[in-house]
Amino acid sequence: MFKQKILLKLQFCTGIFLAVSLSIILLFPPPALSQKAVVLNMLMTAPDAQPWQQGIIKDFEAKNPGIRINLIEGPNATNLLEDLYTSAFILGDSPYDLVNMDVIWSSKFASAGWLLDLSDKLTKEELAAFSSKDIEAGRYEAKLFRIPIRSDLGVLYYRKDLLNQAGFQPPETFADLLKISKSLKEQGKIKWGYLWQGRQYEGLAAMFVEVLQGFGGFWVNPDTLEVGLDKPETLKAIAFLKDTIQEGISPSGTTTYMEEDTRRIFQNGQAAFLRSWPYVWPLANAEDSAIKDQIGIKLMVATSGNNGGTCLGGWGLGIAKSSQHPQEAWKAIRYFTSEEVQRQFILQAGFVPSRRSLFTDPEIISKYPHYSQLLKISDSAVLRPPIAQYAQVSDILQRYLSAALTNSMTPASAMQAAANETRRLLRTGK
Question: Is CATH 3.40.190.10 what the domain over 153-311+385-429 is classified as, yes or no?
Fold first, then answer.
């Protein structure tokens, strides 16, 4: 009987212990049970995804255990990536929280109502730490929708060794560029003078805005929507490009070339000048490069009395309006665009910073000594028109400019048609 009472008491106490324990678990569950990690989805090209996965995403998740970044690898072509974003937003069931945007997408995405307004997220002092044009590219109707994580700039590469041997200074004008190219060709130093991207694609528009700027022209004024494609300055810019081919300064196949086509010719030591992007620098200075340690960079040349320009490229982050986790998404953006994280990102991947201080950061300069020159070039950045209809406007320019360069149309008739079609489009959009 005594044993039975003891057993009953033990059972009763055990029951109380279990009940109390269960109550404690329910009231104060362990972290693993209390909340599931928030997952932020982000889409980007497969090549760009690798440096993110290897470094800054792992670091962010380690410091923010309640947030996970799900990186979705998309196609390498940026236009196809834009199509994926657009399709998802139009269908109204976008899976993306963080929106990784090329510099030319911001206005389109913002005007469509797909992005959250980030205007009150950063102070004026915080915004001033970034390159001003990179910030401007993220605005639409005076509101900020995109924070730049890395920049990109069109640059003019030149062969320092060849120019020094021939007694030339780096060119400052289009006339200088042609003169030096002809001289080096006549001396048998190079096969080609100047390489540029002439294929009908977005790279053609990026290249052209620099030449257009150098001749004092413009494409579309984003404030007034005035179109400058049929003005004399535009025709002079096209005439220069056509002359480079007709005079043998540029290859006859230039109108089919993209970046890599021109980079390979230049890196093989066959040309004196190349218009391209900073990604060329580490490749051209690799151990197996024919021009290792023989190149310099500068701002694109211009006509006398006009300023040269560099086409602004680069990527930035926004937040999808459809995101269920905007606070966590902003926390991720603050982290990824911070100075220290961007420094490590630049050192690991070799991208161009969007923060001005990093262009002259000692650690970065020791690895990429040309970045101080890139900072000077960045001050002359030119935006492709930051308007909602940019994709259509660019398509118009590409088609008619290609027609002019390949002699399918005269430059005057091509640009008149391009200007008229652009004006009709902008009137309809307005």
Answer: yes
Superfamily name with CATH number, domain 36-151+313-370: Periplasmic binding protein-like II (3.40.190.10)
Neighbouring residues of 244: CB distance < 8 A, sequence distance ≥ 6:
178, 181, 193, 194, 196, 250, 254
pLDDT of 384 above 80: yes
Ranking 72-76, 115-119, 197-201, 211-215 by mean pLDDT, the lowest is 72-76
Alpha helices in 152-230 (DSSP H): 160-166, 174-186, 202-214
DSSP strands (E only) in 61-197 = 67-74, 98-102, 139-140, 143-144, 147-153, 155-159, 192-195
Residue 19: predicted pLDDT: 36
> CA 145 to CA 114: how far, in whole Å?
10
Could you give the CA distance from residue 131 to residue 136 in angstroms, rounded to a whole number?
9
Secondary structure tally for the chain: helices H, strands E: 20, 12
Q: Which residues contact 177 (CB under 8 A, 6 or more apart)?
A: 171, 193, 194, 273, 301
Could you read off the pLDDT of 240-252 as tens digits, one per residue?
A: 999 999 999 999 9
pLDDT in tens, 7-55: 334 343 434 333 333 333 333 344 443 468 999 999 998 888 888 987 8
Four-residue CA torsion sign, 119, 426, 402, 236: negative
Q: Radius of gyration (Cα) for the chain, nearest Å?
A: 27
The whole-angstrom separation of Cα 199 and Cα 294 is 28
Secondary structure (H, E, C), 337-387: CCHHHHHHHHHHHCCECCEHHHHHCHHHHHHCCCHHHHHHHHCCEECCCCC
Q: Where in the chain is the domain with CATH 3.40.190.10?
A: 36-151+313-370, 153-311+385-429
